[in-house]
Design brief:
The protein is mainly alpha-helical. It is built from 21 helices and five strands. The longest helix has 39 residues.
């Protein structure tokens, strides 16, 4: 990972060697490769599913034209990428503090993230802000729900409030340093606000992507990009020439204006997107094309749409003579309606969870239950958007959106599964299942057992003890569970604190920082960081690398500050 290489092969090889060495069976070593990936897939599938569902909802909103309308109000506070970065961080922190990051991330991905992208914030910076504020700051303190401080305090034999208060201070220091450094590291990539940034992000385009691999911004024109048209040159036959760039051409490529250009006939009476004739085929008034090639009328309709056309263009299948279903004059009304319905529904969802948190009017919903509620509401909104778009084709459209969402989730995050399987073999809860040890056999906890061997090597210096407990917490978090190592770091704090002269509650809080910032979803890819990267549409390994220096620096500063203050 330090060498910026993919670690799938080393992870699979290490899984095989670990199981073969421990069991002494070559066959069980081979079986463990499959079992490790199966185990990690079952543990991470809830994250894959929520990514798929929210991606499907965004696809339905895009088809309806409601996605851009929905982000317009947020431009009041997100006037630039710089303000968008801090707004994303603040809102994510506020929601995650009360409900944990699991339900907060889909809410950010559905509403604020598209607005931030349109404001000029690069996707990697948006993902960094959400991860640090949610999975890092909010979850590491867990000040409201207090599951993490409770586990640490019980193991250290100190008061929960003492650990929670110190963890809150340490989390704010760590998060503040990480956000500031992350902002400085990404600010050179910020752009001026532009709706085209959102369009390119939704289409899966990146600045580093090869032109031939990019998806078209205009449906029906595969692997082509239409430039903003200059004044058209009219030929003797009354045809206007418009530059349509083929893959690999474009500004900076040295291609002339004529390279890859097509000649589009000027619209005639009765032709084009508003005429009575089909847009494709020989009857369109253009020169008929074979299947797979865009028709002249289609290109004209696409150009009209780019230049502010007031209704969706008819896009016919190439050469088929058919046309796509029209949305009708009430499409803008439905688009505006869903642009308001989606944010109101999700805000109402947050209100419901707040009501359960602070009153007894409704049952309290947190953690996995809250994520399930968000997923269920997302599916309902997806169905409603598909029906509103085209009721007659809603069954197929909804299925297509869900399939697209699942494909995107697996394509973007699937590489993490075998990597996570290797680290799961170090957890006693999964090791027996992965190595097929049987129900009666005791499963080894490789990660935890390696940490216990380090305990006696830690000197009595308060700073060495503080950083030793922090490092142990980070190691125990490598299995992807931010809370699994808290009993161990808490017990170490209770043991090492009196002998080193450090408050055990402070050591427990430092260990809690290491566990949660590592395993909770900031420093490793096989955790809820998958969801953040999925919604931001950035490679999860790139997000881990971008987060490493800011977060580790923040943890170091917070540890030193805590030892000085307390």
């Amino acid at each position: 990972m330090i060498a910026r290489k993919n670690v799938v092969i080393p992870a699979i090889a290490a899984t095989f060697l670990t199981a073969w060495t421990f069991t002494g069976s070559f066959v069980k070593g081979l079986e463990s490769i499959f079992n490790a990936s199966l185990t990690s897939a079952s543990e991470l599938f809830n994250i894959f599913l929520i990514i798929a569902l929210v991606t499907a909802l965004l696809g339905a909103l895009r088809a309806l034209g409601a996605d851009r309308r929905m982000v317009e109000p947020f431009r009041v506070v997100m006037r630039s990428g710089h303000s968008a970065f801090w707004v994303l961080a603040f809102v994510t922190y506020a929601i995650s503090l009360f409900f944990w990051p699991t339900p907060a991330v889909p809410l950010m991905g559905a509403i604020l993230l598209p607005a931030a992208i349109a404001a000029g914030l690069p996707p990697i910076a948006a993902a960094l802000a959400i991860a640090v504020a949610g999975q890092g700051m909010a979850l590491s303190s867990d000040y409201v729900i207090q599951v993490a401080p409770g586990l640490s305090a019980k193991a250290a034999n100190v008061g929960t409030d003492a650990v929670a208060d110190k963890a809150m201070v340490l989390s704010l220091i760590t998060g503040g340093v990480a956000l500031f450094l992350g902002y400085l590291m990404t600010r050179s990539q910020y752009r001026k606000p532009d709706a085209l940034l959102l369009e390119r992000w939704e289409a899966g385009e990146t600045e580093t992507a090869a032109p031939a691999a990019r998806r078209s911004l205009i449906p029906g024109l595969p692997l082509r990009r239409i430039l903003q048209p200059a004044p058209a040159a009219t030929t003797a036959e009354g045809e206007s020439s418009v530059a349509v760039l083929a893959p690999g051409s474009g500004p900076g490529t040295g291609a002339g204006a004529g390279a890859g250009s097509v000649t589009v006939p000027a619209p005639r009476n009765g032709d084009g997107p508003s005429g009575g004739k089909p847009a494709g085929g020989a009857s369109s008034g253009g020169s008929g094309r074979s299947g797979g090639e865009p028709s002249d009328a289609m290109a004209a309709a696409a150009l009209k749409s780019l230049n502010g056309g007031d209704r969706p263009a008819k896009a016919a299948a190439g050469g088929s003579g058919g046309s796509s279903p029209q949305l009708g004059d009430d499409c803008p009304k439905r688009s505006k309606a869903f642009a308001a319905i989606i944010p109101l529904a999700l805000v109402g969802l947050v209100g419901y969870m707040l009501l359960g948190k602070f009153t007894g009017a409704v049952p309290e919903v947190v953690g996995g239950d809250a994520a399930a509620l968000v997923g269920g509401v997302t599916v309902v909104l997806l169905l409603a958007a598909a029906v509103a778009r085209d009721a007659g084709n809603a069954l197929q459209a909804c299925a297509d959106h869900i399939v697209d969402g699942l494909v995107f989730a697996v394509r973007a995050m699937g590489v993490v599964i075998p990597i996570a399987g290797f680290f799961f073999i170090g957890n006693a809860d999964f090791a027996g299942k992965i190595m097929s040890l049987g129900d009666g056999a005791k499963a080894p906890g490789f990660l935890f057992e390696s940490v216990t061997h380090l305990e006696g090597a830690i000197p009595d210096s308060r700073y060495v003890v503080g950083f030793g407990v922090l490092l142990i917490g980070m190691i125990t978090g490598l299995d992807g569970s931010g809370f699994a190592g808290l009993p161990l770091t808490g017990s170490l704090a209770g043991t090492l604190g009196p002998t080193s002269g450090v408050d055990p509650a402070l050591l427990a809080a430092i260990g809690q920082m290491g566990c949660v910032w590592s395993g909770g979803g900031v420093l490793i890819a096989w955790s809820s960081l998958l969801a953040v990267a999925g919604f931001a549409r950035v490679p999860v390994m790139d997000l881990v690398r971008r987060s490493f220096v800011p977060v580790v620096a923040g943890l170091a500063v917070a540890t030193v500050a805590g030892l000085i203050i307390y």
